[in-house]
Amino acid sequence: GQIVYSIAEETERGASVGNIAKDLGIDAATLSARKFRMITGSSKQYFNINASTGALSVNEPIDREQLCELKSDCLLNYELVLENPLELYRMEFKVLDINDNSPSFPLSEYHINMPEFLSPGARFTLPSAQDLDEGANSVQNYTLSPDEHFYLEMQIRRDGSKYPELVLKKALDREQQATHRLVLTAKDGGNPPKSGDVPVIVTVLDTNDNAPEFEHSVYRASILENSPSGTLVVQVHATDLDEGPNGEVRYSFSNTTSADLQRMFSVHPHTGEVTVNGVLAVQRPLLEMLIEARDNGAFGMSSTAKLLVEITDVNNHGPEITITSLSSPIPEDAAPGTVIALLSILDKDPGENGKVTCQISENLPFQLKPSLQNYYSLVTSELLDRELISEYNITITATDLGSPPLTTQKTVWVQISDVNDNAPVFSADAFDVFVEENNPLGAFLYQVSASDPDIGENGRVSYVLRNSTVAGSALTSFLSMNLANGSIYAKRAFDFEQLRSFHFQVEAKDNGSPALSAAITVNVYISDQNDNAPAILYPISQNGSVAVEVVPRLADEDYLVTKVVADDEDNAQNAWLSYHLAHSSDSTLFQLSAHTGELRTTRSLRSTDFLKHKVVVVVRDHGEPPLSSTVTVGILLADTLPQALPDFDDSGEQPPLLNATNIYLIVSLACVSFIFAAFIFFLAIIRL
C-alpha cells in the first residue's frame, strides 16, 4: 500500500508526523520482530520510527530549498520493508514550503547610465530578485524608493514572467544632479512577508541615447543532454540605432544568470552565438538565462532577452538493480509462489528512457512478479529438489526502453536447504548370505548398505534388526548388527543339520525429523560341512557283538548274503556313501557293491568251504576330508538256523568230519538217486 504525509520544512527534530503502525493497520508490537527498516534514495535519514509505538517523527529538519531546488513539488519517497511475512509499503512525504527565505538580488548594487537628453517614458530593465521559496512565498512585487524623476513599472514577457523596469518620469539634468540613488525593494507573499533591497545608482550621461534591442524578448532552444562542448545552442541578435561605437553591440550573460549556467554555456561577444561550454550536469529539463546586449558607447546602453534552453534527455543511464531483501537458503519444500527476494529497479532517465523491463532465464524454477512501482518480487514458480540442484545463480536482466536500449545484469545466488524428503534406499531388493555351519562366535556374515541422497542428519543412516523369530527363538539370539555401518555378526554357531536357512528383515532409518525408513529381506543359507560320519542302520551290532547272517550251505553264485544300509546326516557330497570290503576271511567267496551295499557270493558254495566267515564293511562318505564307519558281519553256512550261534572271533574252521547229520544227508542223496534211476528204467521197459 501507499500512504502520503505532509510536513512543513524546517520542522524541528522529534516533531510527530504520524503513527505508521496505526495508519497502515500494522501491530506496532511486531515491528521489531519483523525487522522493519526504512529505505530511501536520499543521503540523509529525515524521519525515524519508534519500534515500540510505531510513531513517525522528524529525525532531521528538512531544508526544502536545499533538497528540491526550484521544483514546484518537493517529495520524499520512502519504502517500509517488513519481513515474516515480507511486506512493502510506500511512504511519500510532501515537504511544504514556509517563508524562510527573503528575496535577494545577485549583486550588492546596480548601476545604470542614463543620457540626460532622454525623454520621459524611457525604460531601463531592473534586476530581478530571486526567492528560493515557492508559490505565494516567492517574489510577488517590487517597490522603488520615491524619486521625482523615476517610477517603477512591471512588465510581462511572452512566457508570462514579470520583471521590473525603471521608467523616466521627468527629464534629467546632469548639471543639476549627476547621480540619483534609488532603492529597489522586492517583497514576497509570505505571512509575514519578507523583503530584500538593492541600491540602484543612476548616473546621468549626456551621450548615446539608444539602447540595443533584441529581435525577440524570449529565445527558445533545445539540445541533447550529452551535447559536446562547442555545440551551438542559439544565436541571439540585437540592433542599436546609434552609429559608430554607440551602435556596436557586445553580448554577454546578464549578472542575474547563475554562475553555474555561465560555466556550462558561453556567448560569443560579437556574433551572439550561445554554445555549450562544458558538461550539462543539471537535473532540470528547462534552463533559464538572460542575455545582455550592450553598445560600445562611452556610457554603454543595454537590454536583455531571456533564453530558455530545453535539455532533451538521451538514454545515458542504465537501469540500477538493488536487492532490497534476500532470503537464502530456502527449503527445498518451499511452496510455489514463495518470495525469495525483493528487488528495486530504477533508471534515472526520464520518459521512455527511464521505463524498464525486467526478466530472468526461462529454464529456472523462479519468476519475477511486479510489486509496487519500480519493485519486483522474485518468487518460486515450481517445486524445488535439492538432490537435483542445490543452488542457483539467477541472473536478473533489466533493460530500458531507450534507443539504443541499455541493459544491466545482476546475479542473485540462492542456496537450497535440505529437508528430509528421501527415505534410505538399499542397493538391491534382497540380500542372500551364505555361511558355513560350525562358524565361530562373532563371525562377520554380511554388511547391508543403504544410501540417502539427503545431507546432514537427514542423510545419516542407521540400521536395526526387525523383531522376528528363528526356529522358535528370538532373532537377536542368533545375530547382532552394527547400527552405524550395517555389519551383521553371528552370535552362535549354526548347525546345518538343525537349521538350513532362515530370513529376517533389516530396517534402515535416517536421522531426519520425522525420520524416514526402508526395510529389506536378508536370506541366510547355511552350507554343510562334513561333520557327521555315516551311521550303520543294518546290520546292527548289539553290545559289541558281531552281526550274523545265515547262508545256505550250498548257496549259488551271486547269492544275496545281506545288504548294508547306512545314512549320513550331512548334505550333498558329504552324504554320498560308498561301500568297501575292508576285510574278508575268504576274499574269493564274497563281493560287495560299492553303491548299493549288497554283499553277494562270487561263486557257488562247496562242502569244502568253511562253515563260518567274517567280513568287515567300511561305509565312507565323499566329504573333504571323508568320514567313515565300519560294521563286522559274521556269515554262517548252514541250511537251518542253529540253536546257538557260534563264536566268530576265529577267522574260520576246518572241513567237518562225518557225523549223524552228514550221514543222513549222504543216505538221502543216495536214495533219491536210486529212485530216479529206477523210474528211468521203468519208463524204458514200458516203452519197449
TrEMBL record:
Residue spans crossing the bilayer: 663-686
GO biological process, one term: homophilic cell adhesion via plasma membrane adhesion molecules
Domain Cadherin, first and last residues per copy: 6-105, 106-214, 215-321, 322-426, 427-536, 561-648
Main location: membrane
Keywords in alphabetical order: Calcium, Cell adhesion, Cell membrane, Glycoprotein, Membrane, Repeat, Signal, Transmembrane, Transmembrane helix
A GO-annotated cellular component: plasma membrane
Topology of this chain in the membrane: Single-pass type I membrane protein
Family annotation (Pfam families): Cadherin, Cadherin_2
Domain of life, source organism: Eukaryota
Compartment(s) of residence: Cell membrane
GO molecular function: calcium ion binding
Protein purpose: Potential calcium-dependent cell-adhesion protein. May be involved in the establishment and maintenance of specific neuronal connections in the brain.
UniProt name for this protein: PCDC1 protein
Lineage of the species this protein comes from: Eukaryota, Metazoa, Chordata, Craniata, Vertebrata
